[in-house]
Amino acid sequence: MNQTGKKILIASIVAVPIATIIVGLVLVFTPIGMHTTPFYSATFNKARWYTAHQGKTSEEIGKKQAQCIRGAMYGDLKNRFLRPGARRARVIELIGKPDFGSEGVKDGNKCQRWNLGFCSGFKIDLDSLNVCFDKADRVSDVFRLQH
């Protein structure tokens, strides 16, 4: 094997594992960032929450949902306002009636859902804010779900 062939072989032996590691890191950490980052980027603003999904046409509403206006407020809303023990009436006063009619159940508690928009991943799946209430109508759990 000549000198050039040896250099190419050594470069290949070194480059392939490094490239594999880089690609692996990108594949592992990019979905995580795409999945969580948009939900902790804005403080809760009641007026913006209410107007985030309003529009004159379904196209206008769709564009707003793709901007993830509500989704950006999720973290602040959950951490400051939707704390365990908060009353259902206060939650409704703050963010309005649930956007979805059906209630789910988690750990025996009824849960209601609000539309956050198309926020995570490639923005093709709807994300929702889910708030569960115990028998005393107090917040028992708050979580986000990608549909």
Helix content: 40-55%
CATH fold naming: Beta-lactamase Inhibitory Protein, Chain:B, domain 1
The helix/strand class is: alpha+beta
**Tally of alpha and pi helices:** 5
**Per CATH, which architecture?**
2-Layer Sandwich
Tell me the overall shape.
Answer: elongated
Q: Strand portion, in percent? A: 15-25%
String of helices and strands: HHHHHEEEE
How far is it from the N-terminal to the C-terminal residue, by CA? 57 Å
How many extended strands?
4
**Integer tally of domains:** 1
Uncertain stretches of 5 or more adjacent residues: 27-35
Provide the spatial order of strands within the biggest beta sheet: 1-2-3-4
Mean pLDDT across residues? 83
Q: What radius of gyration results from the CA coordinates?
A: 22 Å
Seen as an oligomer or otherwise, the chain set is single chain
- Main beta sheet: 4 strands, antiparallel
Assign the CATH class.
Alpha Beta
Structural account:
It is a single chain. The protein is an alpha+beta fold and 147 residues long. The protein has one domain (39-146): Beta-lactamase Inhibitory Protein, Chain:B, domain 1. It contains 5 helices and 4 strands. The protein has helices at 3-36, 46-51, 58-66, 69-80, 88-95, and strands spanning 104-106, 109-117, 127-133, 139-146. It has a 4-stranded antiparallel β-sheet. It is elongated. Residues 27-35 have low confidence and may be disordered.
